Protein backbone atom coordinates (compact mmCIF):
# COMPACT_ATOMS: atom_id res chain seq x y z
CA UNK A 1 0.00 0.00 0.00
CA UNK A 2 1.41 3.37 -0.94
CA UNK A 3 1.86 6.13 1.68
CA UNK A 4 -0.91 8.27 0.19
CA UNK A 5 -3.37 5.35 0.54
CA UNK A 6 -2.39 4.92 4.18
CA UNK A 7 -2.88 8.59 4.94
CA UNK A 8 -6.24 8.54 3.14
CA UNK A 9 -7.41 5.80 5.48
CA UNK A 10 -6.52 7.76 8.62
CA UNK A 11 -9.01 9.92 10.43
CA UNK A 12 -8.04 13.51 11.23
CA UNK A 13 -6.80 12.43 14.69
CA UNK A 14 -4.45 9.87 13.14
CA UNK A 15 -6.59 6.83 13.99
CA UNK A 16 -7.40 4.36 11.22
CA UNK A 17 -10.77 4.59 9.49
CA UNK A 18 -12.54 1.26 10.08
CA UNK A 19 -15.45 1.94 7.73
CA UNK A 20 -15.77 -0.57 4.96
CA UNK A 21 -16.85 0.06 1.44
CA UNK A 22 -20.39 -1.41 1.27
CA UNK A 23 -21.15 -0.37 -2.31
CA UNK A 24 -22.40 -3.01 -4.77
CA UNK A 25 -19.28 -2.51 -6.88
CA UNK A 26 -17.03 -3.26 -3.89
CA UNK A 27 -19.13 -6.32 -3.01
CA UNK A 28 -18.88 -7.60 -6.58
CA UNK A 29 -15.12 -7.05 -6.53
CA UNK A 30 -14.79 -8.95 -3.24
CA UNK A 31 -16.84 -11.87 -4.57
CA UNK A 32 -15.11 -12.03 -7.96
CA UNK A 33 -12.57 -14.70 -6.98
CA UNK A 34 -14.99 -17.11 -5.26
CA UNK A 35 -17.38 -16.60 -8.19
CA UNK A 36 -14.53 -17.27 -10.62
CA UNK A 37 -13.78 -20.58 -8.92
CA UNK A 38 -17.46 -21.50 -9.18
CA UNK A 39 -17.65 -20.41 -12.82
CA UNK A 40 -14.68 -22.68 -13.60
CA UNK A 41 -15.80 -25.64 -11.47
CA UNK A 42 -19.41 -25.95 -12.64
CA UNK A 43 -18.64 -26.50 -16.35
CA UNK A 44 -15.88 -28.96 -15.48
CA UNK A 45 -18.23 -31.01 -13.29
CA UNK A 46 -20.95 -30.80 -15.96
CA UNK A 47 -18.51 -32.04 -18.61
CA UNK A 48 -17.35 -34.93 -16.41
CA UNK A 49 -21.01 -35.75 -15.69
CA UNK A 50 -21.83 -35.79 -19.41
CA UNK A 51 -18.72 -37.54 -20.76
CA UNK A 52 -18.07 -40.88 -19.05
CA UNK A 53 -14.46 -41.13 -17.82
CA UNK A 54 -14.83 -44.92 -17.81
CA UNK A 55 -14.78 -44.99 -21.61
CA UNK A 56 -11.36 -44.85 -23.22
CA UNK A 57 -10.26 -41.88 -25.28
CA UNK A 58 -11.97 -39.02 -23.48
CA UNK A 59 -9.43 -38.21 -20.75
CA UNK A 60 -5.69 -38.66 -20.38
CA UNK A 61 -4.32 -41.49 -18.27
CA UNK A 62 -2.94 -40.64 -14.84
CA UNK A 63 0.80 -40.03 -15.37
CA UNK A 64 1.72 -41.79 -12.11
CA UNK A 65 -0.36 -44.84 -13.07
CA UNK A 66 1.08 -44.85 -16.60
CA UNK A 67 4.68 -44.69 -15.34
CA UNK A 68 4.50 -47.01 -12.34
CA UNK A 69 1.41 -49.16 -12.69
CA UNK A 70 0.29 -48.05 -9.21
CA UNK A 71 -2.69 -45.84 -8.46
CA UNK A 72 -2.22 -42.38 -6.95
CA UNK A 73 -4.63 -40.94 -4.36
CA UNK A 74 -6.53 -39.18 -7.15
CA UNK A 75 -7.00 -42.18 -9.43
CA UNK A 76 -10.68 -42.76 -9.94
CA UNK A 77 -11.66 -39.21 -8.95
CA UNK A 78 -13.11 -38.37 -12.38
CA UNK A 79 -15.18 -41.54 -12.36
CA UNK A 80 -16.19 -40.71 -8.78
CA UNK A 81 -17.44 -37.27 -9.81
CA UNK A 82 -19.27 -38.86 -12.76
CA UNK A 83 -20.94 -41.38 -10.44
CA UNK A 84 -21.89 -38.70 -7.90
CA UNK A 85 -23.35 -36.50 -10.65
CA UNK A 86 -25.62 -39.38 -11.57
CA UNK A 87 -26.56 -40.09 -7.93
CA UNK A 88 -24.58 -43.32 -7.58
CA UNK A 89 -23.02 -42.84 -4.12
CA UNK A 90 -22.16 -46.51 -3.56
CA UNK A 91 -20.35 -46.70 -6.90
CA UNK A 92 -18.50 -43.42 -6.11
CA UNK A 93 -17.36 -44.79 -2.75
CA UNK A 94 -16.05 -47.89 -4.50
CA UNK A 95 -14.07 -45.84 -7.00
CA UNK A 96 -12.34 -43.38 -4.65
CA UNK A 97 -13.61 -43.07 -1.10
CA UNK A 98 -11.07 -40.33 -0.39
CA UNK A 99 -12.44 -38.12 -3.18
CA UNK A 100 -16.00 -38.61 -1.88
CA UNK A 101 -14.90 -37.51 1.58
CA UNK A 102 -12.95 -34.51 0.27
CA UNK A 103 -15.75 -33.01 -1.86
CA UNK A 104 -17.76 -31.77 1.19
CA UNK A 105 -14.53 -30.52 2.79
CA UNK A 106 -13.67 -28.50 -0.31
CA UNK A 107 -17.25 -27.18 -0.45
CA UNK A 108 -16.98 -26.10 3.20
CA UNK A 109 -13.78 -24.16 2.59
CA UNK A 110 -15.21 -22.52 -0.54
CA UNK A 111 -18.36 -21.50 1.38
CA UNK A 112 -16.26 -20.13 4.27
CA UNK A 113 -14.16 -18.13 1.82
CA UNK A 114 -17.23 -16.82 0.00
CA UNK A 115 -18.97 -15.83 3.26
CA UNK A 116 -15.86 -14.01 4.48
CA UNK A 117 -15.62 -12.08 1.22
CA UNK A 118 -19.37 -11.30 1.18
CA UNK A 119 -19.22 -9.95 4.73
CA UNK A 120 -15.95 -8.12 3.99
CA UNK A 121 -14.18 -9.95 6.76
CA UNK A 122 -10.57 -11.03 6.52
CA UNK A 123 -10.04 -14.46 5.05
CA UNK A 124 -8.19 -16.64 7.49
CA UNK A 125 -4.72 -17.38 6.21
CA UNK A 126 -4.26 -20.35 8.50
CA UNK A 127 -6.54 -23.16 7.37
CA UNK A 128 -6.09 -25.36 10.41
CA UNK A 129 -3.74 -26.32 13.18
CA UNK A 130 -0.47 -27.58 11.65
CA UNK A 131 -0.94 -30.94 13.41
CA UNK A 132 -4.24 -31.39 11.58
CA UNK A 133 -2.61 -30.56 8.26
CA UNK A 134 0.18 -33.08 8.91
CA UNK A 135 -2.43 -35.68 9.93
CA UNK A 136 -4.27 -35.02 6.66
CA UNK A 137 -1.05 -35.47 4.68
CA UNK A 138 -0.42 -38.71 6.60
CA UNK A 139 -3.94 -39.92 5.75
CA UNK A 140 -3.37 -39.18 2.04
CA UNK A 141 -0.06 -41.07 2.07
CA UNK A 142 -1.59 -43.98 4.00
CA UNK A 143 -4.51 -44.14 1.57
CA UNK A 144 -2.04 -44.06 -1.32
CA UNK A 145 -0.01 -46.90 0.15
CA UNK A 146 -2.89 -49.13 1.26
CA UNK A 147 -4.83 -48.90 -1.99
CA UNK A 148 -1.79 -50.34 -3.83
CA UNK A 149 -1.29 -53.30 -1.47
CA UNK A 150 -3.01 -56.65 -2.10
CA UNK A 151 -5.33 -56.35 0.93
CA UNK A 152 -6.24 -52.78 -0.02
CA UNK A 153 -7.76 -53.73 -3.37
CA UNK A 154 -11.13 -52.57 -2.05
CA UNK A 155 -9.74 -48.99 -2.13
CA UNK A 156 -8.44 -49.34 -5.69
CA UNK A 157 -10.48 -47.86 -8.51
Automatic annotation (TrEMBL):
Coiled coil: none annotated. Residues 1-26 are annotated as: Disordered. The keyword Isomerase does not apply. Keywords: Membrane, Transmembrane, Transmembrane helix. This is DUF2752 domain-containing protein. The chain crosses the membrane at residues 31-50, 92-111, 132-156. It holds the Pfam family DUF2752. InterPro entries: DUF2752. The keyword Transmembrane helix applies.
Amino acid sequence: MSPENVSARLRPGGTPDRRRDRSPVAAARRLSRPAGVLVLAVPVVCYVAAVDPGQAGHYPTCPFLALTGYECPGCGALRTIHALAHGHLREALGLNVFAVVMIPVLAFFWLRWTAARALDRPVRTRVADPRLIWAFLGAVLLFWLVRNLPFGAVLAA
